[in-house]
Amino acid sequence: MADLQDERHPTAEVGELPRLFEAVPELYTPVSDPDSEPLDRARAILAAHPVADGYSGLPGALRHLPWFDLEVGESAVDTDVPRLREGHVGALMWSLHLPEGLDGDRAVGATLEQLDLVKTVVRNHPEGLRLACTAGQTTDARNCGRVAVLLGPAGAAALGDSLGILRSLHTLGLRVLTLSEVSWASEAGLTRFGEEVLREMNRLGVLADLSGASEATVRRTLAVAKAPVLFTRSAARALRPHPANLPDDLLAELGAARGLCMVPLTAEQTGPTVREVADHLDHLRAVAGAECVGLSGTYDAGIAHPQELDDAACYPHLVAELLRRGWEEADLALLTWGNVQRVLRESDFTARAAQLRREPSTAKIAELDG
């Protein structure tokens, strides 16, 4: 691992912007006119650094529609290709979470059906959407004028307590798994089998999502994980005491671990106005650092959204608010695109390194937790 890490060289990618700008300021040229209106500046910044959105409930919403066309536009949902383009969304994580109460074989089967639905939707909308698994593929999709679709997060119940199913889901494209609501990732934390699942996820390149996980699971995952972790729908508990939001001590730990907290644009978790969402982003940046903050629209998840952030077209309004607060373009580039790219790249690198020294795990839950 040390030899492999020695081969890593810094590049001028967005994920490294703050350090590069400090060392070599001429690498960065602002993409907007500082004298223009904030909304115009926001659109210019997003055109160069689009949003990588951490959570979309679109697959679940589409299952209830008899017919839809996302490329022309679809009023029955919050997300379609025209609004994604208007909002400058370049990548989107599509949730594979299941209705409550599904477990075992039913959960596995329902997750496979969700995967099939997403792939069918993307295949039927080739001018607007493209499946992606890596940072490079998300960038390629964006450069081709498509929105990159990343598969996940899925619920941990989708594994059916089988590492073989985890590997099969990864082969089908799964890239994010939420570690909660199963026996091996519960209020008590990760069990021995849970730790083995996490190690296998790191070996494969499947990111751990900890939104909604217990504090014990969060802390043990941060201690065991070799790749960055995500909170796909978490904000600051200091500002709003929602159970999925994070206290400052965990935010600081996440920053030290170079993970990523993706703030949801929901009235319940962040507040009913765009200004309150911006308050959370200010707070997270101050506590965890600019490299650890992202965005999660949480559209089409059946949740109310703040004013001016009603659907996927509204991201310029949020970026304009942050510009009014004095956010630099470099930090905005990290918030929207660069931090997700960094996490994807580091996960891929960790997986390649782990595959050189670790065979696929054959562990069984009965052996480790029985």
From TrEMBL:
Its EC number is 3.4.13.19. Gene3D superfamilies: Metal-dependent hydrolases. GO terms for molecular function: dipeptidase activity. InterPro entries: Metal_Hydrolase, Pept_M19. Keywords: Dipeptidase, Hydrolase, Protease. The keyword Hydrolase applies. This is Dipeptidase. It comes from Streptomyces doebereineriae.
